[in-house]
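Cross-posting from the chemistry board since nobody answered there.

I work mostly on the small-molecule side, so proteins are not my area. We synthesized S-adenosylmethionine and want a rough idea of how it might sit in this target. Sequence and SMILES are below. Is it possible to get a predicted 3D structure of the two together?
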Amino acid sequence: MTDDYLALNRAMWDSRAAAHAGSVDYDVERFHRDPAAISDVVRFDLPRLGDVTGLDTAHLQCHIGTDTLSLHRLGARVTGLDLSPASLEQARRLATVTGADISYVEADAYDAVAALGATYDLVYTGIGAIIWLPSIDRWAEVVAELLRPGGRLFIREGHPMLGTLEPVDGRAELTYPYFEHEDPLVFDGDETYVDTDEQLESLPSHEWQHGIGEILTAVLRHGLVVESFTEHDSVPWRALQELMEPHPDHPGEFRLADRPERLAASFTLTARKPG
Ligand SMILES: C[S@@+](CC[C@H](N)C(=O)[O-])C[C@H]1O[C@@H](n2cnc3c(N)ncnc32)[C@H](O)[C@@H]1O
C-alpha cells in the first residue's frame, strides 16, 4: 500500500480543523474563560487516568489540542503530535492564548519515535485516533518504544463493535468490518462530527477498523502489561446519529437511546511497560 492515504487524510483533517475549533462541541472558549477548565473527554477519563502530575506525556493524534491542554492543566508535561498542520495551528493558538507551555510536533504517528526523539512516562491517545492507522501492530510497536520502563499507555477509543454499525432507517445495520482489513474504508463527504454552519469541502478519508483481540494482542506482543480494560456504553460523539442521545450522567457523551446496554460504544485500555 502506498502512503497516499496520509496526504489524503491530512488534507481532510486540515480542512476540518478551523470548523472544529469554532464549534460548540469542542467549546474552545471555555478554556479561555476558565483557567481550570478541562475537556469532557479528559473529565470522563479521570477515574481511570490517575494522577498525571509531573508525568512526561506524549499525546498522539492530539488534533486541536483541547485534551492536550486538559492533561497540561492536570499537571502533566505534554507534547502533542499530529499529522495535520492546520490542527496543530489551532492547538498552538489555544496553548498560547491560555499561557500553557505545550510543545507540538507535526508527524505521522508511525514516525513518532524519530519525530519526538524522547521517551515518556505516559502515552495518551484515542477518541477517533487509531482508525486512521492501517496496522494496529505497528502502532503498538511505536507506543512501546515511546514508553520508558515503568511508563503507561492510556487509550480510550471508539469500540470496534460500534465501528461495524451504520444507522439505516432507524436501525443499526452491521455494515463495516470488525477485524483489521488491508484495504481502507473510503468515505467521501462534506460532513464532520461536530455541529457547524461552515461549508466543508467534500474530501475522502481512509480508515481502518481494528478488533479488540487485535488491539490487545498488539499491545501484549510489544511487551506491555495490560493493567485495565473497560468497556463503556457511550462515546463522545453522536456516532449513530438519531439512534443516540446524550448520556444522562456524562456531559459530552452519547449512547443508544433505546436499551444502551446492547452496545459497547467505547473502551479504555491501560497498559504498562515493565520497569
Ligand atoms: C478525531 S481526531 C483525534 C481526536 C482527539 N481526541 C480530539 O477529538 O481532539 C483525529 C486526529 O488524528 C490525526 N491523524 C490522522 N492520521 C494520523 C497519522 N497517521 N498520524 C498522526 N496523526 C494523525 C488527525 O490529523 C486528527 O487531528
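Reply from a structural biologist on the board:
Welcome over. Reading the output above for you: The chain has a mean pLDDT of 95. The chain has nine helices and 14 strands. Happy to explain the C-alpha cell format if needed.
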